[in-house]
Amino acid sequence: MLNKKSILDADSLSLEDIKLILSNADSFLEISRRDVKKVPTLRGKTVINLFFEPSTRTKTSFEIAAKRLSADIINFSPSTSSLKKGESIIDTLKTIFSMKVDLIVIRHSDSGTVKMVDRFVDIPVINAGDGKYQHPTQALLDLYTIKKRFGKFEGLKVAIVGDFLDSRVARSDMNLFEKMGMDVTIVSPTMFLPEDFSAMKVKHCIGDVIEDADIVYMLRMQFERQDRKFYPSVMEYNRFLTLNMDRLGKMKPGSIVMHPGPVNRGIEITDEVMDTSGELAEKIVIEEQVTFGVAVRMAILYLILG
Ligand code: CP
Question: 136-290 belongs to which homologous superfamily?
């Protein structure tokens, strides 16, 4: 079992926790490939999905993971709840806890909200993404995807490309990638970099890393969290930072392209790359990330509640 009550960030996950989650994900991936994708492991447990911000992958993935483990899962919808009548988050949570749920999965647009919730409750809390801060289960499924492709982490060269200022995925991924001994390079214009990144290896053009990277991790441009002007223009962004067919073709054999989704087509990755078929399509593992996400989240729910 995991050595912790909740998963709030990537930083507090130990190497031991990470390895345990990744090794358990293997058996849950096997269950997801069966005709009957269900085991009774968490029968009688109740999980609540509290998503205060839109989500397709994370919310559905936790729901499928809980259902495959036979837990009951409730999807709480803030827009149709008494929050709309002015009830506070804390009073809303008190009401939900009175119904004796066993675990909360929470996403919120404000950084730190998940930690606040965790301090307030005795049951486990899983951070499904909060503001610009953390998205630890995304980072764990990213690690699992890398493990399945390469069978190792140590020494792999990963270039993370895009907006670091607004990206919770970048913060969580960088922490776990470095913990696992990967060699991380940041590719970003200065306007998308926090000041505390000055000690990191930074490049400003994807062309500088494309031929050498084992993993090119394209970050989503977080337009919904940006409160400033976008890069001078989409044209300049495309010139320096977008993954296009020419750049994909320069990647070395065995290398891969990752993205947490949803992709802004034509910004992070071109339509041509997203829809490519044949040999180069093997490099794009965005759908594999989603598939593996269910197995990783099953492992997490099992290791916390099982
Ligand atoms: N990667 C990710 O968090 O996607 P969603 O916003 O669709 O959950």
Answer: Aspartate/ornithine carbamoyltransferase (3.40.50.1370)
Identify the burial level of 75 via C-beta atoms within 10 angstroms of its C-beta, where 0-12 means exposed, 13-18 middle and 19 or more buried.
middle
136 exposed, middle or buried (CB, 10 Å; 0-12, 13-18, 19+)?
buried
Question: Which atom from ligand 1 is nearest to the alpha carbon of 54?
Answer: 6
3-state secondary structure of 284: strand
Using pLDDT thresholds of 50, 70 and 90, give the confidence band for residue 194.
confident
234: confidence class by pLDDT, cuts 50, 70, 90: confident
Instruction: Give the pTM.
Output: 0.96
CATH superfamily of the 15-134+291-305 domain: Aspartate/ornithine carbamoyltransferase (3.40.50.1370)
Q: What residue's CA is closest to ligand 1, atom 1?
A: 260
Nearest CA to ligand 1 atom 4: 57
Ligand 1 center to 251 CA (angstroms): 26
Residues carrying an active site annotation = 57-58, 85, 107, 135
Mutate to test the pocket of ligand 1, among 56, 135, 287 (most ligand atoms within 8 A of CB): 56
Compute the distance between CA of residue 214 and CA of residue 205 in angstroms, rounded to an integer. Answer: 17
Measure 204 CA to ligand 1 centroid, in angstroms.
Answer: 26
